[in-house]
Amino acid sequence: xxxxxxxxxxxxxxxxxxxxxxxxxxxxxxxxxxxxxxxxxxxxxxxxxxxxxxxxxxxxxxxxxxxxxxxxxxxxxxxxxxxxxxxxxxxxxxxxxx
Amino acid sequence: xxxxxxxxxxxxxxxxxxxxxxxxxxxxxxxxxxxxxxxxxxxxxxxxxxxxxxxxxxxxxxxxxxxxxxxxxxxxxxxxxxxxxxxxxxxxxxxxxxxxxxxxxxxxxxxxxxxxxxxxxxxxxxxxxxxxxxxxxxxxxxxxxxxxxxxxxxxxxxxxxxxxxxxxxxxxxxxxxxxxxxxxxxxxxxxxxxxxxxxxxxxxxxxxxxxxxxxxxxxxxxxxxxxxxxxxxxxxxxxxxxxxxxxxxxxxxxxxxxxxxxxxxxxxxxxxxxxxxxxxxxxxxxxxxxxxxxxxxxxxxxxxxxxxxxxxxxxxxxxxxxxxxxxxxxxxxxxxxxxxxxxxxxxxxxxxxxxxxxxxxxxxxxxxxxxxxxxxxxxxxxxxxxxxxxxxxxxxxxxxxxxxxxxxxxxxxxxxxxxxxxxxxxxxxxxxxxx
Lengths: 98, 435
Prior knowledge:
Number of helices of chain B: 15
Distance between the termini of chain B: 55 Å
CATH topology of the domain at 4-66 and 106-177 and 293-366 in chain B: FAD/NAD(P)-binding domain
Low-confidence stretches of chain A: none
Number of helices of chain A: 3
CATH class of the domain at 4-66 and 106-177 and 293-366 in chain B: Alpha Beta
Helix content of chain A: 25-40%
Largest sheet of chain B: 9 strands, mixed
Order of helices and strands of chain A: HEEHEEHEE
CATH superfamily of the domain at 4-66 and 106-177 and 293-366 in chain B: FAD/NAD(P)-binding domain
CATH class of chain A: Alpha Beta
Shape of chain B: globular
Number of domains of chain A: 1
Strand content of chain B: 25-35%
Low-confidence stretches of chain B: none
Distance between the termini of chain A: 28 Å
Radius of gyration of chain A: 13 Å
Largest interface: A-B, 40 and 55 residues
Mean pLDDT of chain A: 93
Oligomer: heterodimer
Largest sheet of chain A: 2 strands, antiparallel
Structural class of chain A: alpha+beta
């Protein structure tokens, strides 16, 4: 994970339209001390790079750029590492082309 | 508590949901369709190719109104290594026909149009509404839904689950399992805009002719996956997808894969100077026949991607979605007119009809392919593409080496990489899974 790749994803997400449901994130990471292999996999697998390590080495999610693909749900929900719901109606990513 | 009843509730407004809602509304049923997006299409992502035959069954004169991009006259398959591609191209004037067979479309726009047909047919379409839960009557029968929009329940005789590959309702209600990481692919995609004439010149197209490129090889870094390039009127859809389990295993970032694909010397000139206007991501069901869940039960049916109905080998999904949505709806209409309850016993008609259609027959034909592709991904997506590229280069490069010696060299590179038993075994395994 280098600076170059992080910049590029953020730039990509700028093309998209979002209606962020402030204060109601649709994905939650279970509190943990040391991240599980599933959580660590999300740092790379999430196509919007929503998952990041904080300075305590824990995995955090910021859903503002989420494209609602569900990859993290497939990887992280079975182990209980994350909780995944759809955003409330009308919120989230709004594809112009899809 | 708002008590409102419908003959049927359709959850989702993708291809399957729209097909189901349209079919039932046309039959005079009282239909409610719920969609969480701002409008039907705003959450939907596909390449996308539209198959005329299946849409014609829903909207016979769609060609006069639908927002279609280009009709396909050419299909290109590319086997890629890092610096080359070996191509199999099929182009035919036969595809310049009065009623073309396949079109490129832009899903958000197409779905919005198809949704207008659903409304015209008399269905109530409620957008910006996320269904949060299925309502069960205490005896295992689904009798309605709860949404985030209003208090209380909305009742219906039957709920059509067209909630997509990542549908939460069915798994939450334990009607089916959550897809496993090795049974779904994650695809990332960009929309590249260029002047119309530029696209036509670069892809060798006249007027509304279109072309598709499907690519496999070292672009997926040994993972089970494929890239695609679709020519639309004024933009190019391009993307790449691989199994989620492979992303998990290799720690390859999807956007880096996409960037490498775009920078490939075979692809870069096609999109040179383009303006990117969207970046999207979506899951694709890849498990095939063996992953199809239970398709119906008391008060519910599941259709489209939510039911894993996707033909990964032929890259067909939207037509399977449309067809399953229509067949489920027709079964429901038939039960309604017979006056029988929407129970598993009677809704079995949906599966019975689907089993006889191309949807299940095609998936059954390729039932062993997904596993084969996944367990041999290194060979099929890395080793062979490299060998084929080397062989082709050896064949075309003129350097004074006698041809017999060149052939021996090529043969030896294959045998060294895979051994005779490996080569024969691979050929046998593919033939068996394909037949």
